[in-house]
């Protein structure tokens, strides 16, 4: 199985076909199993700015208030995830998108309440 991390800075927006996704689709079509894990920092920053929500970074990690979390979840599970899945489907791949919170796949705890 191939695990590919596609960072938010690398995700191309506005192109009809993302060249990275074309490469990944070809691997899948040739029988390779693929897990695509994506980021979305720039997309989140854009949405936070658009909605006038301040976001603080602490040691490279986003301090996630409930207001910020709502935007993060909507952006990653909506815009970014759906965009990637739809492009892969358009490239002839039976793609399925799930978020980390689906089916209790991951659990998180507050690392620092401050």
Give the helices and strands, then pairings.
Elements: E1 2-6, H1 19-29, E2 34-38, H2 41-50, E3 56-58, E4 61-63, H3 66-90
Parallel strand pairs: 1-2
Antiparallel strand pairs: 3-4
> Judging by the overall fold, what is the CATH architecture?
3-Layer(aba) Sandwich
CATH class category: Alpha Beta
Query: What do we call the CATH homologous superfamily?
Result: Acetylglutamate kinase-like
Based on helices, strands and strand pairing, what is the structural class?
alpha+beta
Task: Give helix % range.
Answer: 40-55%
Note the beta-strand portion.
5-15%
Biggest sheet, spatial arrangement of strands: 1-2
User: What count of helical segments does DSSP give?
Assistant: 3
Low-confidence stretches: none
Mean pLDDT: 91
Count every beta strand, where a strand is a DSSP E run of 2 or more residues: 4
The third-level CATH topology is Carbamate kinase
What does this structure look like?
There is one protein chain. With 114 residues, this protein is of the alpha+beta class. It has one domain (2-104): Carbamate kinase, CATH 3.40.1160.10. The chain is 40% helix and 14% strand. The chain has three helices and four strands; from the N terminus they run βαβαββα. It has helices at residues 19-29, 41-50, 66-90, and strands at 2-6, 34-38, 56-58, 61-63. The strands form two sheets. Strands 1-2 form a two-stranded parallel ribbon. A two-stranded antiparallel ribbon has the order 3-4. Strand 3 (56-58) and strand 4 (61-63) form a beta hairpin. Helix 2 packs across helix 3 (66-90). The N and C termini lie far apart (39 Å). The mean pLDDT is 91.
